[in-house]
Amino acid sequence: MNPVFADLPVSVFEVMSALARKHEAVNLGQGFPDDPGPEDVRRKAAEAVVDGWNQYPSMLGLIELRQAIAAHYRHWQNLTLDPESEIMVTSGATEALAGSLLALIEPGDEVVLFQPLYDAYLPLVKRAGGVPRLVRLEPPHWRFSEEMLARAFPPKTKVVLFNNPLNPAGTVYGRADLELLARFCEKSGAIVVCDEVWEHVIFDGRRHVPLIALPGMRERCVKIGSAGKIFSLTGWKVGFVCAAPHILRVLAKAHQFITFTTPPNLQAAVAYGLAKSDDYFETMRRDFQRSRDRFTAGLRTLGFPVIDAEGTYFVNVDLASLGLNEDDESFCKRLVVEHQVAAIPVSAFYAAEPIRSVVRFCFAKRDATLDAALDRLAGALKRAA
Ligand code: PMP
Ligand code: GLN
C-alpha cells in the first residue's frame, strides 16, 4: 500500500468529532456552524433536485455557475475572469487542492508550505511526489518575514501552497504580506496555489486581497474558493478554481479523472447564492463577528489567553503563559472527557517542530451553544494549574 496514506493517522477533525459524540460534548472542534444555512439557497437546491437537471453537467461546471463566480469576484475582489477558460467548479476546495497539486507537481519538485497547515496539504503534496519546504509560523501574530521566506524558498520552487485567511490561526494577510510573498514566488518561478476558502469570513471591516490580483501574479496563481464556507453549508462540497487558461487547462485534466463533475443541483443553488445582495454577505460577517466577540469575551473572563481572530470560524487560546503541566493534545483530551467541550489541538497542524500550547475553538455557533461551552469550561484551567 502507499505509505503516504497507510501511515497517516485519522484526521484530527474526525477524531475530535467522534470523541465529542462519545462524551456528549459541545463540539467546538471541527469547523461547522450549527445554523442550518440560508433557507433560500437550500430551497433553490431542493427545487433543482426536483425540477432541474440531474444528469452529468459540463465537466468545468454549469456555465451559469461559472458566470456567477466571475460576476461575484468582479464585484467583491475586482477580478476579471473568463468563465469559459479561467474558472472550473470542483467537489469542494478539497478536490480543487488535490487536483491542483497532482496537476502541477512532478516527483522531486520542491513545494513551499506554511505551518500551521491544513491537514490535507502535506499528504497531497507528498502523494504527488513533492518535496516539502516548511515555513514555521508562530503565535500570536503568525506572520512571515523576508528572512523566513529566504530560508525556506529553494532557488527553483515549483509550487507554493498558501492559505489566506489562515486556518487554524484566524490570521488575515494583507497587501504588504502578499507583496513580500509575491516577490519570492516570482523570483523562484513558483506557481502559487492560494487556498482562499475563508475569503468572505473576515471581520472588523477587513477586505480580502486575493494574491492573484497582485502585479505579476495573474499568470502564476491558482485561486481556490468554497461555497461551503461562503454560505455556511460546509457539507455541500462545491468548490471553485480560478487560474489563467494555460494553467486551468491542465488542472481540468486532473479534475476529469478525480470527480469529473459536481452535483448540478447544488451548483445551481450556489449560482443563485453568489448573486445575493451585499447585505447578505455583510450580515453573515457581522453575525460571525458577534459570535467571535461573545465567545472571546467569555473565554477571557474565564482566564483563557485569547489570540484575537481576524477571520475564519476559529479563535485560539495560547496556554503557554499559564504554566500548565500539559500540552495542547492532553488539554483537549481532558477538556472533552471531563468538561464535555471538544476543541482542536493546533499541534496537529504542524508537520515538524509543533507549537504545543495553542488550542482552537470554533465559535460559529448559536449563542446558547457558546454559552453552554463557556459554562462547561469554567474550572478547566484551575484544575490543570
Ligand atoms: N482549506 C481550508 C483551509 C479549509 O479550512 C477547508 C475546510 N474547512 C478546506 C480547504 C476544505 O474545503 P471544502 O469543504 O470545500 O472541501
Ligand atoms: N476545515 C474544517 C476545520 O478546519 C474541517 C474539515 C474536515 O473535517 N475535513 O475544522
Describe the 3D structure:
With 385 residues, the chain is an alpha/beta fold. It is built from 14 helices and 13 strands. The chain has a 7-stranded mixed beta sheet with strand order 2-8-7-6-5-3-4, sandwiched between helices. A hairpin with a 6-residue loop joins strand 9 and strand 10. Helix 3 (39-51) packs antiparallel against helix 11 (264-274), helix 4 packs parallel to helix 11 and helix 5 (92-104) packs parallel to helix 6. The radius of gyration is 20 Å and the shape is globular. The model has no long low-confidence stretch (mean pLDDT 96). Bound molecules: 4'-deoxy-4'-aminopyridoxal-5'-phosphate and glutamine (GLN). Glutamine is lined by residues 11, 13, 30-31, 167.
What low-confidence regions span 5 or more consecutive residues with pLDDT below 50?
none
The SS-based structural class is alpha/beta
Main β-sheet, spatial strand arrangement: 2-8-7-6-5-3-4
Radius of gyration: 20 Å
Alpha-carbon distance between the termini?
45 Å
Strand content: 5-15%
In round numbers, the mean pLDDT is 96
Q: What is the H/E string?
A: HHEHHEHEHEHEHEEHEHHHEEHEEEH
Helix content class = 40-55%
Number of separate strands: 13
What characteristic shape results from the CA principal axes?
globular
Task: Tell me the major beta sheet.
Answer: 7 strands, mixed
* Small molecules (ligands, ions, cofactors) in the structure: 4'-deoxy-4'-aminopyridoxal-5'-phosphate, glutamine
Helix count?
14
